[in-house]
Specification:
The protein is 32% helix and 25% strand. It has 520 residues and is α/β, with parallel strands linked by helices. The longest helix has 17 residues. It binds 2-methylbenzoic acid. The site of 2-methylbenzoic acid has 10 residues, from α8 and β13.
Length: 520
């Protein structure tokens, strides 16, 4: 399924093919109350591709695409790919310092930006000497003297021949959001992009042209790019975009856009459940057929509550920016066991190895996850990281898993989230899931805090659910709950209440920031 011809262009595959095969009038994108058909999308991509060529963008050049989840971001990425250049979708919350690093590292030639995100970009562009042009998509009325996205599209020809890209030519560059260190560019070829749809999406979701993919992962997050660009367009289905995601706007989009595949992360599912404890209330969510989750492990109680209140299963999956999308998941037709992540996605192999010796471990033993398949790790400009990251084709995402007797992979922790206390190995996320069962707990992060006697102790940072009091009595109750549910040595010896947990833009808890607090 993922053997492609030697020459293939992802934009032709995702857009032009549908128009050629008579699906030009089908909805490609729904955003607010606007709909863009496949024919209209093709025309915009072609016009903007010509405009970018006129600005001097050549095959292989890198182009920054900096937007919230809006249709211009989709058009921009496809136009850049169609002319053989490489889009670099950029997270909207990045500040000038981080952007400067990315612009310089990727040697970005042209940046396309939403007007409300222009400020930080201009500061970053001033600090580097590679960016030749900024194109601004006007919306909120920011004043500027750059070429405008809309007028470039209006003035350009709609006749664009795709660049004759080889399947292995680079077609996407994403920076790892990373919880530590300098962001690294991970690059992917035109065939890698298609392989995420023809592997994970095709087998696990079985999409059709009637599907509508929506939700809140940002498009510059590999998970969001697959869910909200590659998958729907590969199957002639529809993208639903929500610019300012909240429980209300997401449920509105389900109703208004008819979302069938709801793509999100555990935090957002929990926010929806917390905002609408009785269920979806006034929203019509009958279009939903399946939910997706990634970024962090999904707690079984979230799976159960969504299933009970929204009538859908959530497929939890693990992927990485480096592998481009999910490589372990259940399929929507499986009898899902929510306490496990699932099986290796068809086309991928996964195994558990001893972190010391690298030897494969038998089922039932926990160790380092290794994975290989049709997509793989290629870092931009980082030969030293590249040789560390891949061994005989196997990549090591940095997670501890167990493969159960039935073949399912069960998440234990990030390698750096394993707490070693008095010689016991305690996966922090296991303690988190037990604490999350309690109604008083809105959010929790568990880390190892340094301790003279035990090396480390289990410490839980907890955001208390509205209406409950954060006091000593609650500490004791929560500690007893863990002692009664797990081996008692796993209970959090310390609990600290906090207003908000530190998170990355993709919703991952930044446990390193909590660990840093323990060092001072
Ligand atoms: O974080 C994940 O699990 C993930 C999933 C799909 C694609 C990318 C990522 C980082």
């Amino acid at each position: 399924e993922t053997d492609y011809p030697s020459h293939i262009n992802v934009a032709e595959e995702l857009v032009d093919r549908h128009v050629e095969e008579g699906r030009g009038d089908n909805a490609a994108i729904r955003f607010r109350d606007r709909e863009t058909t496949y024919s209209e999308l093709q025309e915009k991509v072609d016009r903007f591709g010509n405009a970018l060529r006129d600005l001097g963008v050549e095959p292989g050049d890198r182009v920054l695409v900096r937007f919230p989840n809006r249709p211009e971001a989709v058009v921009s990425c496809l136009a850049v790919q169609k002319i053989g250049a490489i889009p670099q979708p950029s997270m909207k919350l990045l500040r000038a310092k981080e952007l400067t690093h990315i612009l310089d590292d990727a040697k970005i030639k042209v940046a396309i930006v939403y007007d409300d995100l222009l400020d930080e970009l201009e500061d970053a562009v001033d600090a580097v000497d590679c960016v030749e042009e900024i194109v601004v998509a006007d919306d909120v009325g920011v004043e500027h003297d750059h070429p405008s996205y809309e007028s470039l599209i209006d003035d350009a020809s709609d006749d664009l021949e795709a660049h004759d890209t080889e399947a292995t030519d680079l077609g996407l560059m994403l920076y790892t959001s990373g919880t530590t260190g300098r962001p690294k560019g991970a690059v992917h070829s035109h065939s890698d992009i298609l392989a995420t749809a023809d592997g994970y999406a095709r087998y696990c979701l079985e999409p059709t042209a009637d599907d509508v993919f929506g939700g809140n992962p940002p498009l510059p997050f590999a998970y969001g790019y697959g869910d909200l660009v590659t998958f729907p367009l590969r199957f002639g289905a529809t993208i639903s975009l929500v610019q300012d995601a909240s429980p209300e706007t997401l449920l509105e989009a389900v109703e208004d856009h008819g979302i069938t595949v709801f793509c999100s992360v555990p935090t957002a599912y929990n926010q929806i459940l917390s905002k609408f404890p009785e269920g979806h209330e006034e929203y019509d969510v009958s279009s939903l057929r399946v939910g997706l989750s990634a970024g962090e492990p999904l707690a079984p109680h979230t799976f159960d509550e969504i299933n009970e209140k929204y009538g859908i299963d959530i497929l939890d999956g693990i992927g990485t920016t480096e592998m481009l999308h999910i490589f372990i998941s259940h399929r929507h037709t499986d009898d899902i066991d929510a306490s496990a992540t699932g099986f290796a996605v068809p086309g991928y192999e996964a195994k558990i190895v001893d972190p010391e010796t690298g030897d494969e471990l038998e089922r039932g033993r926990s160790g380092q996850l290794a994975v290989r398949g049709p997509t793989g790790i290629t870092y931009w400009n980082r030969p030293e990281k590249q040789s560390e990251a891949v061994e005989n084709g196997w990549s090591f995402p940095g997670d501890i898993f167990v493969q159960r007797e039935d073949g399912r992979f069960e998440y234990q922790s990030r390698e750096d989230d394993l707490i070693i206390s008095s010689g016991y190995n305690i996966p922090g996320p296991e303690v988190e899931m037990v604490l999350e069962e309690r109604e008083e707990v809105q959010e929790v992060a568990v880390i190892g805090a340094p301790n003279e006697e035990r090396g480390e102790i289990v410490k839980a940072y907890i955001v208390v659910e509205e209406g409950h009091e954060a006091n000593e009595e609650l500490v004791t109750e929560l500690q007893n709950h863990v002692k009664n549910t797990l081996a008692p040595y796993k209970y959090p010896r310390e609990i600290q209440f906090i207003d908000e947990l530190p998170r990355t833009e993709t919703g991952k808890i930044q446990r390193t920031k909590l660990r840093d607090r323990e060092q001072v």
